[in-house]
Amino acid sequence: MTRTATRLPLTILRLVFAGALLAMAAAPFLFADNQIAVLTEFLSMLVLAFTWNLLAGYADIVTVGQHAFVGVGAYAFYGFAALLGLNPYLSIPLAGLVALVIAVPAMTLVFRLRTAYLAVGTWVVAQVLMLIAGKLNAFGGGSGVSVPIYILLEFGHTRGARLSTIYWFVFALALLTFAATWLLLRSRIGMGLTPMRDNEEGAAAVAVNVARARLLSLLCTAPFLGPAGALITL
């Protein structure tokens, strides 16, 4: 009887969650364009919140430079779609790949630091990347450049169609980020993140590779932050 009583609220929560997902998936058919734009911004921020929660909430990494990979994704998307002429839809996941490639050497250097120095190190990485971006004339230098209209038209020939397409992309990215985080936390690496959060020395004492777990956690966020930057740009 107790087990049944315990399962009932969980079942109700799952049904509510499934209903909310269906409503979010059908949002372009239910809401006006301005509301879709707000929902798109909300889901974009939710992707950043998922990655921040993984780092600060579990891996105990206080980073203030995560926005660097959002910017890298935006620049990579423009480079692939506008400068190289690749399919804009393909350019979105490629932006995530570029963010991951840049994150590997950057975070390998930063992770030589600890505590507050690590947080400052991530900020320095973001600042260095921003200074480099300001020197790229093909990307508008320090003034920036707008996304060409023909790229936007690939996502829809009307404002409503474009908003709907971009919304579904951001919605899918938010779901993918949530699923990837959920799977990581239930993996062998993820099982070590919770004791790391509570007691780093204790986790290391029971054979948790703290440095590797933290590095992998941070690298896992880059492939999601890159596409987020591309979609925020759109």
- Which value, in Å, is the CA radius of gyration? 20 Å
Helix content: over 70%
Question: H/E series, N to C?
Answer: HHHHHHHHHHH
- Spans of 5+ residues with little confidence (pLDDT < 50)? none
Number of helices: 11
Q: Kindly estimate the percentage of residues that lie in beta strands according to DSSP.
A: under 5%
General shape: flat
Mean pLDDT, as a whole number? 86
Taking the alpha carbons of the first and last residues, their distance comes to 53 Å
Largest sheet: none
Structural class: mainly alpha
* Number of extended strands: 0
What features would you describe in this structure?
The protein is mainly alpha-helical and 234 residues long. The protein has eleven helices and no strands. The chain starts with a helix and ends with a helix. 31% of the residues are buried.
What topology does this entry show?
Elements: H1 2-25, H2 27-30, H3 33-58, H4 67-83, H5 88-110, H6 115-133, H7 149-153, H8 159-185, H9 188-198, H10 200-205, H11 210-233
Helix pairs in contact: 3-8, 3-11, 4-5, 4-6, 4-11, 5-11, 8-11
Salient structural properties:
mainly alpha; 234 residues
